[in-house]
Design goal:
Layout: H1 2-11, H2 18-29, E1 33-35, E2 48-52, H3 59-70, E3 75-79, H4 83-86, H5 99-114, E4 118-125, H6 128-132, H7 137-165, E5 177-185, E6 193-198, H8 200-211
């Protein structure tokens, strides 16, 4: 299974070569990818809605790491192949089936039913689903950041609507926090998987300064609209 994912990535030009390694090193130096500080992720210990891939080779290691740094085990897991890449409206992975809407509604319902207000969106690279669409590391990161912004913008509205359907008075929008991870498998040996926080602000600032746009996925598209529904710094990214 893992070997076939690597083969697809190489064929699509989305493999893990020296250029990708250099990109990750550069992003770490720029503070786009930063080490995880779990105590700031969920300080109230109410739990996390974890949105991640179902990858049998990489996801278990990533979940174990998250449980360790968060220091408790109340994780409500939502898994779908390439989940972090599907939420953005511009994602090429959403074809006939509206998987983006399904994920957004599942996130909102999970937050509402479990009383959780922190969402962890976890991407990974290499990603077989992304490779099937010819997406490299930067495209993976860009789609995941766009997905994070869409969660922040739309999940509170969905939660509010769900509460109203149940007859609950909801005077204000629910307040949520969204953290984003990138789980990287360096592939040269089993011990080289690392999980990083992703700073949306530094990612967008980096591309605004280098090519005049806040996205590398499709330069013809406008950057994601800013939202004041909690800044990245609330959760240490």
């Amino acid at each position: 299974m893992l070997a076939s994912v690597h083969r697809i990535a190489r064929e699509k030009g989305s493999g893990f070569g020296m250029e990708t390694r250099e990109t990750i090193r550069n992003f770490r130096e720029r503070g786009i990818l930063v080490d995880v500080r779990g105590h700031q992720l969920d300080p109230d210990k109410t739990g996390l809605v974890l949105v991640t891939c179902g990858d049998c080779d990489r996801t278990p290691e990533n979940i174990l790491f998250i449980r360790k740094v968060v220091d408790h085990s109340r994780l409500h897991e939502l898994k779908l192949n390439g989940a972090s890449l599907r939420i953005a409206k511009e994602s090429p992975l959403n074809g006939e089936f509206p998987t983006d809407r399904i994920l957004l509604e599942d996130i909102a319902e999970s937050c509402m039913l479990k009383g959780i207000r922190v969402i962890a969106l976890c991407g990974q690279y290499p990603c077989g689903k992304g490779a099937s669409a010819g997406l490299g590391f930067k495209e993976n990161l860009d789609l995941a950041v766009r997905g994070k912004m869409r969660i922040k913008a739309e999940v509170p509205l969905l939660m509010q609507e769900m509460m109203r359907r149940q007859g609950t008075l909801v005077p204000d929008l629910p307040v949520i926090k969204v953290a984003m991870f990138m789980h990287v498998d360096y592939e040269d040996r089993a011990s080289t998987m690392r999980t990083y926080f992703v700073s949306r602000e530094r990612w967008e600032a980096h591309h605004a300064s280098t090519d005049g746009t806040a996205t590398v996925f499709s330069p013809s598209l406008p950057p994601p609209e800013p939202t004041d529904n909690h800044d990245d710094t609330d959760i240490a990214v």
